[in-house]
């Protein structure tokens, strides 16, 4: 599915604060992510490779935000995808893009900042 640039821009801008009815995805806490992660959830980390190398969830797949639209086909469509970044802003943008591509998305509010603050494990 090809999306026009203006429509994508609008969806991306709305993603950070719009309710699920508009964005099509839900925002979850790191506590909810931890439960899903422990059960084997797919986690997509949309930070830069340098940020990812500084610390990430052990099974998280790194796909930088600037590549999400072009590589959305690589993201699973058969199960929920938990999208994380540093603070929740870039993951909200990626979540909007992936939702428009037909993915079942959960944006992780607070991102790695909240994950680390909660004392959850990080791999380097």
Automatic annotation (TrEMBL):
GO molecular function: transferase activity
One Pfam family from the record: Rhodanese
Extent of the signal sequence: 1-23
Residues covered by the Rhodanese domain: 37-124
InterPro entries the record matches: GlpE_sulfurtransferase, Rhodanese-like_dom, Rhodanese-like_dom_sf
Keywords: Signal, Transferase
SUPFAM superfamilies to which the protein is assigned, alphabetical: Rhodanese/Cell cycle control phosphatase
Protein name from the UniProt record: Sulfurtransferase
Taxonomic classification: Bacteria, Thermotogati, Deinococcota, Deinococci, Deinococcales
């Amino acid at each position: 599915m090809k999306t026009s640039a203006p429509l994508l821009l609008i969806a991306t801008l709305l993603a950070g604060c719009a309710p699920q009815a508009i964005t099509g995805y839900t925002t979850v806490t790191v506590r909810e992510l931890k439960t899903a992660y422990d059960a084997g959830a797919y986690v997509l980390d949309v930070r830069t490779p340098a940020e990812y190398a500084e610390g990430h969830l052990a099974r998280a797949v790194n796909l930088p935000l600037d590549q999400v639209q072009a590589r959305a086909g690589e993201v699973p469509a058969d199960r929920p995808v938990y999208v994380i970044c540093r603070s929740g802003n870039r993951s909200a943008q990626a979540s909007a893009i992936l939702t428009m591509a037909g993915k079942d998305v959960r944006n992780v509010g607070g991102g790695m900042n909240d994950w680390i603050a909660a004392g959850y494990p990080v791999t380097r």
